[in-house]
Amino acid sequence: MKIKENIQFESLCIKAVTGNIKPDEERILDKYLSASEENRNEFKRIQALWNKSKITVMPELPNPETEWLQLNARIEDYERKNYSYQKPKHKFLFTFRPALSAALFIIFFLSLWFFWDLEIKKPDYELVSTGNKEHREINLADGSKVLLNSGSILQFPGSFDKKERKITLKGEAFFSVAKDGRPFIIFTDNAAVTVLGTKFNVRARGGKTEVYVKEGKVNLARQNLKKTSVVLSKGELSRIIENEVPAPPVKSDPDPQLGWMAGKLVFDRTPLPEITDELERFYDVRITLSGNSLSSYSLTGSFNSRNIEDVLKMICLALDLEYSKASESGDQSSKRAEYSINLKK
Amino acid sequence: MPVTPDYEEYDAFLVKAIKEGEHEAYKNLYYKYFKPLVRYAWYRTNSMETARDLVQDIFFKIWINRELLNPAKSIKAYLYRALLNSIINFKKLSSSKTVSFDQIRNLTKENSFEADIDIYNTINKLPGKLKEVYILSSLEGYKYSEIAEICGISEKAVEKRMSKAFNILRKFLCKY
Predict the structure, then answer these.
(1) What secondary structure letter does DSSP report for A262?
(2) Cβ–Cβ of A64/B34 closer than 8 Å?
(3) What's CA A27's distance to the chain center, in Å?
(4) Closest-CA residue in chain B for A54?
(5) DSSP notation for A276-320
(6) What percent of chain A lies above the pLDDT cut of 70?
(7) Measured between alpha carbons, how far is A64 from A72 in angstroms, rounded to an integer?
(8) In this structure, are residues A147 and A72 in contact, taking their beta carbons and an 8 Å threshold?
(9) Partner of A142 at 20 to 30 A CA spacing, among A260, A269, B10, B99?
(10) Burial of A208 (0-12, 13-18, 19+ CB in 10 A)
């Protein structure tokens, strides 16, 4: 073979094994391959070299979620420092600065004296809620961080009690609790989750509280009966349904529990009504299930599509159902798209 | 051409939003590129700690200097360029040039271990430009067009570099 041809042949082989070959080039390659045994062996050698050079082993990657929280902490820190160094711009403020700061000083101490009693007795509560398609990150007074999933409510005091840190959750959130000696307790409708300093996910929806632990240890108890509690370790999942005793902790895959933070929906034998609830929040749509029999369906799988119809298509394909989009003319007040899932006719 | 145009448009869309201070877009960009960048940095430094630090630095700077972003330019190329620069700087700063393979050793079964080290060493011996192209193709399975975008060269040049890299690898790993 001529040298120029040889180079072309080799380049085509490489394109083929790396998945870069185009249809017309494939035809040329085929001609080369059928021309001689030598060429076919050459192709095999290139393919073997490529397969061999694939990186097969790699240490575990750092967790994107924890890295993300760290990155944000760093950004916040940087922004706080930079804003506090801004110089006063107003002439008035500048010239009267000593007097002004003295006045502020006095006002501050007066108010401190005035509010001291109130503040200890009645910690002011803050309420943060998320709508559909919305996530929010909340920094608590003790340095703990909460990532609130869509359609959730978190209630917490501006400053915590001296003995314990108590907050209330409806919905789902991921907690990164800072260690500071005081226990941290999350109350849901039916459960109390107690920790010291760990990372974990709490999903409190529809009378059910589910806890998945990413790091450290977590205590899960019924709301008013703390005697019946379970302790969960890293990678374990447990739940309390209504007023039942907590389920024994089991090792579980993190994705169904933590996937939402990466914009992924992961279901593991999840009942269809729970799935549609999750989709409604995730895509800000409305989905109705027509027929009672549909609530007994359940599904395992993961979705990260940006398009709700793709997801519905996949679900219906898997469960042998049908979906339809409601006509837009109906309710003018809500702009949400409406879908319904039903049995195949 | 089997390229996915909406992919690139999506990146440009994210960059525009980040420039306007949209934190959610920043998060999306982060989740899209975090793993590939860490993998790439690990391969070039052989240390997961270093890889993580370098990648975090890059994302940190993107947000801090978000006003300077240019939506007309490929953010993917920008990310890899920035990463490559910090890897080069890191290597200049770290005096010891010995590389430890403990991380690979722990993960590999005895049989394949020696072979993996051979491959790793050989790929790292490739000249910088060839190595870059080869790793992007092998590690992330990027298409020639994507590699061309990242490296700021033509697809034809990618093709040539791949051929050269294959030839060199072959000489070292004479079995093939």
Answers:
(1) G
(2) yes
(3) 47
(4) B138
(5) HHHHHHHHT-EEEE-SGGGGG-EEEEEE--S-HHHHHHHHHHHHT
(6) 86
(7) 12
(8) no
(9) A260
(10) middle
Chain A residues in contact with B39 (beta carbon < 8 A): 58, 61
Which CATH number fits the domain A131-261, given the four candidates 3.40.190.10, 1.10.1740.10, 3.40.50.970, 2.60.120.1440? 2.60.120.1440
Residues from chain A contacting residue B30 (CB–CB below 8 Å): 64, 68, 71
Q: How does A55-80 read in b/e, with b if 16+ C-beta sit within 10 Å?
A: beeeeeebbbbebbbebbebbeeeee
Task: Render each residue's pLDDT in chain B as its tens digit; 176 residues.
Answer: 233 334 567 788 788 889 888 888 898 899 889 999 998 998 888 888 889 999 999 999 999 999 889 888 889 999 999 999 898 888 777 644 444 444 444 444 444 555 666 777 788 888 888 988 998 898 888 889 889 988 889 999 999 999 999 888 888 776 65
CA distance linking residue A206 with residue A152, whole number of Å: 12
In chain A, residues 42-71 whose CB comes closer than 8 Å to chain B:
45-46, 48-50, 52-62, 64, 67-68, 70-71
Convert the pLDDT of each residue in A173-205 to its tens digit. 999 998 887 888 899 988 889 887 789 999 998
Q: Do A62 and B52 touch (CB under 8 A)?
A: yes
- Look at the domain A264-343 and name its fold: Phage tail protein beta-alpha-beta fold (3.55.50)
pTM value is: 0.47
Take residue A238 and report the two structure tokens written for it.
């447990």
Question: Rounded distance, CA B84 to CA B78, Å?
Answer: 10
pLDDT tens per residue across span A279-322? 988 888 889 888 778 888 888 888 877 788 888 888 888 888 88
Contact A71 B30 (CB under 8 A): yes
Phi/psi of residue A245, nearest 5 degrees: -75, 155
Q: What is the mean pLDDT of residues A86-96?
A: 50
Burial B54-91 (b: 16+ CB within 10 A, else e): bbbebbbebbeebeebeeeebbbbbbbebbbebbeebe
Confidence of residue A89 (pLDDT cuts 50, 70, 90): very low
Closest Cα in chain A, distance from residue B95 (Å): 24
Instruction: Please report, in angstroms and rounded to a whole number, the separation of the first and last CA atoms in chain B.
Output: 32
List B residues 68-97 in contact with A (Cβ-Cβ < 8 A).
Answer: none
At B99, which amino acid appears?
V
Q: Cβ–Cβ contacts within 10 Å for residue A280, how many?
A: 20
